[in-house]
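To the team - coenzyme A complex, inputs and output below.
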Amino acid sequence: MGAKVELRELTRDNWEQCIALEPTDEQRTWVDPNVWSIAESRFYPSMLPLAIYAGDEMVGFVMYAQTPDPRDGNFWVHRLMIDRRHQRHGYGRAAMGEVLRRLRADPACRTIWIGYLPDNDAARQFYASLGFEEQGEAPWGGDWVARLVVGD
Ligand SMILES: CC(C)(COP(=O)(O)OP(=O)(O)OC[C@H]1O[C@@H](n2cnc3c(N)ncnc32)[C@H](O)[C@@H]1OP(=O)(O)O)[C@@H](O)C(=O)NCCC(=O)NCCS
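Output:
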């Protein structure tokens, strides 16, 4: 059986814990700091920043779009990170499973997009294993993007 996680809202009680979560040193270039993502969500209301919990322990952070991005009309999973101390326990996979479940439940969501840096092989493999198909470089450059078609 896979790992179990719960996605919980950020509140005044847990946000500082969330910004203290860290990837490994090697991964630092692959994901924006959580404090950055939380700030970004303040200006893009479609972005929902959530803490990932395994039981009562906060183990990671995810941010996805509840509505299509006003800039390109797509549903994006903008960010995913699992704290360095909690990686390789299946929490990333479980959190993405829950995000995909929520997005699939929205009839307006036909395609889900994610982006990652081209040297992030772990992310590429991980998203490919969930069914995402790589589409090449993002229009804004730098990132590579992959999409998962969920509707017809
Ligand atoms: C990518 C990330 C979220 C995976 O989280 P995790 O909880 O460690 O992953 P899981 O244990 O659920 O494993 C999911 C899959 O990710 C891949 N993976 C995770 N860590 C990996 C590593 N160090 N090397 C290669 N593949 C890796 C594997 O495909 C794995 O599947 P498997 O266990 O069946 O082989 C985590 O490594 C992370 O936070 N990385 C830094 C931030 C980042 O790169 N985010 C994604 C880009 S936006």
